[in-house]
């Protein structure tokens, strides 16, 4: 059985980060190994939450894995909250990712803005970590900050997206996935670039106007699982995008739904069926 190591925080309640990544990776028939970077009572969308930084545990965990000769078939990082964590991820990539694909999901912002705890220096440091990955999965906002591109507040066209992708290609990744591309109010798309094939693909689907926490984590978990299982980038993008859309529709159909995340659990059967 394949084994993916996913590294990000864990919110005890909140349907994001590790509580999303772990069940999705497992449902796709892959062992999910985790390295929590922090423990929160809930995600930060709640008014009250506790936070425990686990950065100091990373080296201890890494040392124990080394002693047990543990390896991974893929490494995937999500939200990382400090410069020190970025440095430690680079060390893990160098030691445990030499013969395995590495995906960095540069979770830094959305809607044209960085999250409040980040600044331009952090975006630049995240860019350096992205250069060490085989696959990166930025949304439009993150791609702009990674490439020092002004975010298009008044809309954009295919020329802008093409130029942005060219800037991302300079990072040298084997695969680039650019999420959240909308030319109109009805559709949302994902672009994928496969360097080995020198191939650019895109996949557009229905745009649901509501926004939910954790959908980026869902997308990255499903996409990377497909790639680790040996599928191509185009199919991985379609599978991940359809899964997220299906989960959002399941959520909206539930009158008693919560506000803090999507009912991805209801969409897991279809995800498994389409493997």
From TrEMBL:
Stored Gene3D superfamilies: 3.40.1190.20
Enzyme Commission code: 2.7.1.35
InterPro entries associated with the record: PM/HMP-P_kinase-1, PyrdxlKinase, Ribokinase-like
Question: Keywords, A to Z?
Answer: ATP-binding, Kinase, Nucleotide-binding, Transferase
Kindly give the SUPFAM superfamilies that the UniProt entry links to this protein: Ribokinase-like
Domain annotation Pyridoxamine kinase/Phosphomethylpyrimidine kinase: ranges: 26-253
GO MF term set = pyridoxal kinase activity
Q: What class of enzyme is it?
A: transferase
* NCBIfam families with a match to the protein in the record: PRK07105.1 (NF005491)
PANTHER family linked: PYRIDOXAL KINASE
The protein, known as: pyridoxal kinase
């Amino acid at each position: 059985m394949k084994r993916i190591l996913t590294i990000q925080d864990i919110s005890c309640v909140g349907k994001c980060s590790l509580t999303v990544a772990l069940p999705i990776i497992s449902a796709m028939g892959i062992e999910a190994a985790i390295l929590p970077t922090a423990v929160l009572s809930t995600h930060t969308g709640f008014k009250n939450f506790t936070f425990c930084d686990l950065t100091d545990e990373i080296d201890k965990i890494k040392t124990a894995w080394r002693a047990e000769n543990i390896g991974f078939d893929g490494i995937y990082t999500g939200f990382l909250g400090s410069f020190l964590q970025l440095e430690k991820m680079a060390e893990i990539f160098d030691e445990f990712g030499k013969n395995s694909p590495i995906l960095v999901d540069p979770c830094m912002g959305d809607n044209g803005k960085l999250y409040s705890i980040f600044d331009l220096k952090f975006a630049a440091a995240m860019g350096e970590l992205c250069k060490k990955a085989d696959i990166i999965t930025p949304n439009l906002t993150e791609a702009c900050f990674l490439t020092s591109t002004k975010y298009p507040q008044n809309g954009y066209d295919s020329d802008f997206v093409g130029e942005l992708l060219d800037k991302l290609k300079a990072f040298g990744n084997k695969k680039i996935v650019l999420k959240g591309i909308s030319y109109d109010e009805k559709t949302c798309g994902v672009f994928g670039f496969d360097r080995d094939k020198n191939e650019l693909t895109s996949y557009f689907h229905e745009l649901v106007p509501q926004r939910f926490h954790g959908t980026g984590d869902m997308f990255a978990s499903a996409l990377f699982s497909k790639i680790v299982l040996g599928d191509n980038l185009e199919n991985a993008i379609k599978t991940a995008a359809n899964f997220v859309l299906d989960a959002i529709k399941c959520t909206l159909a539930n009158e008693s739904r919560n506000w803090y995340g999507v009912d991805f659990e209801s969409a897991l059967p279809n995800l498994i069926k389409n493997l």
